[in-house]
Amino acid sequence: MKKTRCIMIQGTMSGAGKSLLCTALCRIFRQDGLRCAPFKSQNMALNSAVTRDGLEMGRAQAVQAAAAGVEPDVRMNPILLKPSSDVGSQVIVMGRVRGQMPARESYRYKKQLLPEVLAAYRSLADEYDVIVIEGAGSPAEINLKADDIVNMGLAKLVDAPVLLAGDIDRGGVFAQLYGTVALLEPDERARIKGLIVNKFRGDVEILRPGLAPLEQKTGVPVLGVVPYVRTAIDDEDSLAPALAQREAHKPLDVAVVRLPRISNFTDFAPLEQHPLLGLRYAADVRSLGAPDLVILPGTKSTLADLLWLRQSGLEAAILKLAAAGVPVLGVCGGYQMLGRSIADPDGAEGEPGACLRGLGLLPVETVFCADKTRARRTATALAGPFAGARLEGYEIHMGRTEAQGGAPFCRLEDGRADGCAAGQVFGTYLHGLFDSGEATARLADWLCRKKGLRPAQAAPLSHAALQEREFDRLAAAVRGALDMDAIYRMMEV
Predict the structure, then answer these.
(1) According to the model, what pLDDT value does residue 245 have?
(2) What is the pLDDT of residue 343?
(3) Residues in contact with 470: Cβ distance below 8 Å, sequence separation at least 6, in sequence order
(4) Does 265 share its domain with 226?
(5) Rounded CA gap, 238 and 261, in Å?
(6) Which of 233, 327, 403, 425 is the least crowded, having the fewest Cβ atoms under 10 Å away?
(7) pLDDT tens for residues 83-113?
(8) Phi/psi zone of residue 264: left (φ > 0), alpha (ψ -120 to 50 degrees), beta?
(9) Structural domains in the chain (count)
(10) Are residues 173 and 256 in the same domain?
(11) Is the pTM of this model over 0.85?
(12) Annotated catalytic residue: which of 397, 431, 448, 463?
């Protein structure tokens, strides 16, 4: 039986660019006529996606699947850890919640999951020509290597050749790459077939004198220097540094509150593509300022982040802005916060019996429960400026919210109402509500009229169309930088 080809991207650290390199390879293999699937045995992120069959997986692998032109599948990310505190995470296995665990317990538990990880990988290998595997963090985390199931431990089990990527944008890339190789065991070093210098800015000729000594010291060839590519492709992690750096330089100012455990912030990426909408993230009262729209995003820990909002002074600032006529939009956890109260009788998020008052801007009440809602949705917006927009998104939440007034935000495909609107305050459980482009265009036009600006004439671009364009652009840059012939040869061994 022919062995399925695979290639694994590992990094010298978190944020070295593994996810985007894997995304690029998925698109390149698709362009080359191969049926390709991404795979990451364990992901830790608050940015997740819902599959067509209502299961939850890491957004990075869902994006990579889209680049490969295939439907996202939980087998591509069998274990997802969603941090709910500094020392604990919700553990999701094959798309379903297995429990809430402290870090030490989840670390021990993952060893029990190896059979499920391998079963998922082998099932994909039976269906696809190539598997593009993404590692996590660094393979040289020597305190964690004994029970590794995501870097070299997995590479050995599935016999994957490894490409090691270093991030030159952070500096010290030669030390990153050499130090990582040096800390590996001899059999692990032998598995590394190529080095990648990632995120390079400037003239590559200046870098070349250092590449030959690096190859000599590591015994591994440098397969390419990949340029720093700015893309509109969804980020893997809500802790991405760019999140704090985005600022508004356009006529309309949209401020997203950067909650401590913000999740699925990619909901708002489509707003950045509008010619008049400037999107920025605010973590304190001063940076919030006086925007044209305030957005409360989703969060993995609604009650804890609501307390933070209150203690930071942001709650009072948002209430003041709302009273002055500034529109406010809440999505998922942000929607829950905008209501009158949030109760957690069974301890779904923390201590059983906890109950907090909300901001009181919407006439709704939320009660948490153990069952997690996970579903893709299509809907038609009903509320104010969004009315008539076709929406495509998904729900991921553990609460049930009941409205005691106001109007529905949208009507789901099955006829049920979702969300609530009261005056210029809007709330919805629908992640991805801006993906179709229609809600973005209607919102921007409404904000323009409020501010006395001429609306944009550009037709709305769907998020899917934008991503397709960006996949091809990223693939072109990576294909031009890497020795793809060498990569194909190492996959055939």
Answers:
(1) 45
(2) 95
(3) 231, 232, 233
(4) no
(5) 8
(6) 403
(7) 877 667 889 999 999 888 877 777 677 778 9
(8) left
(9) 2
(10) no
(11) yes
(12) 431
Got the DSSP string for 313-325?
A: THHHHHHHHHHTT
Q: Which of 6, 22, 36, 332 is catalytic?
A: 332
**Residue 332 a catalytic site member:** yes
User: What is the DSSP annotation of 194-243?
Assistant: EEEEEEE-S-HHHHHHHHHHHHHHHS--EEEEEEP----SPPS-TT-THH
The residue behind tokens 């948002």 is 318
List, as own/partner pairs, every contact residues 411-417 make where C-beta atoms lie below 8 angstroms and the sequence separation is at least 24, other chains included: 411/379, 411/380, 411/382, 412/377, 412/378, 412/379, 413/377, 413/378, 413/379, 417/382
**Domain for residue 108, yes or no?**
yes
CATH number of the domain encompassing residue 128: 3.40.50.300
Tokens read off for 164: 């090691």
How far is Cα 376 from Cα 429, in angstroms, rounded to an integer?
11
Q: pLDDT averaged over the chain?
A: 92
Placement of tokens 């934008």 in the chain = 466
Q: Which two tokens stand for residue 136?
A: 């996590």
Amino acid present at 24: A
Distances in Å between the Cα of 6 and the Cα atoms of 72, 297, 416, 439, 468 are: 18, 37, 44, 40, 23
Residues 64 and 95 in one domain: yes
Helix (H, G, I), strand (E, B) or coil at 186: helix
Burial of residue 215 (number of CB atoms within 10 Å: 0-12, 13-18, 19+): middle
Nearest alpha-carbon partner for 94 in 126, 111, 116: 116
List the beta bridge partners of residue 8: 133, 162
Please give the order of strands across the beta sheet that includes 252-257.
Answer: 277-282, 252-257, 293-296, 328-331, 425-428, 420-422
463 a catalytic residue: no
Task: Identify the CATH number of the domain in which residue 319 sits.
Answer: 3.40.50.880
